[in-house]
Amino acid sequence: MQCSMSLSTTSAALLALGAMSANSAEVGVVIGVPPPPPKVEAIPVVPVTGYVWRPGYWLWQQGRYLWIPGAYTVPPQPHAVWVSGHWTTAAGGWVWVAGYWRY
User: Fold this and answer.
1) Phi, psi (degrees; rounded to nearest 5) at 7
2) Residue 51: how many other CB atoms lie within 10 Å
3) What is the residue-wise DSSP string for the chain?
4) pTM of model > 0.85
5) Contacts with 59 (C-beta within 8 Å, 6 or more apart), sequence order
6) pLDDT for the residue numbered 20
7) pLDDT at residue number 7
8) CA angle 40, 99, 59 (to 5 degrees)
9) What is the pLDDT along the chain (103 residues), one digit of tens a residue?
10) Spacing of C-alpha 70 from chain mean position
């Protein structure tokens, strides 16, 4: 009985941590270094009809920008449009505005 109670407590703590992480990601981090210009990517032929190209972007990770290459992805609904993420100026630095699906 004591073991299952401990497991429940641990599970609740992990769920709370996950919720805090998700909320902190929405706040955004101000980066003092401007991002490099986007890379020009050759867009390959669509592998399957209906796939959508999601362009690459610069990700701030471990104190530097890291290029995340573009890729084809399956839209969540047939006519959904991908709105690319972008860096914007804010509070004396740069903040990432995440991409999203527009329905």
Assistant:
1) -65, -40
2) 13
3) -HHHHHHHHHHHHHHHHHHHHHHHHHH---BSSPPPPPPP-PPPPPSSTT-EEE--EEEEETTEEEEE--EEE--SSTT-EEE--EEEEETTEEEEE--EEE-
4) no
5) 65, 66, 67, 68, 96
6) 32
7) 37
8) 60
9) 444 444 333 333 333 333 333 333 345 799 999 999 999 999 999 999 999 999 999 999 999 999 999 999 999 999 999 999 999 999 899 999 999 999 9
10) 13
For residue 27, the model assigns a pLDDT of 56
Alpha-carbon distance of 62 to 66, in angstroms, equals 9
**Measured between alpha carbons, how far is residue 56 from residues 47, 68, 84 in Å?**
17, 5, 9
87: its two tokens: 């860096």
Rounded to an integer, what distance in angstroms lies between the CA atom of residue 1 and that of residue 94? 51
Report whether 53 contacts 25 (CB < 8 A). Answer: no
The radius of gyration of the chain's CA atoms, rounded to the nearest angstrom, is 19
Task: Characterise 63 by phi-psi region: left (phi > 0), alpha (psi -120 to 50), beta (else).
Answer: left
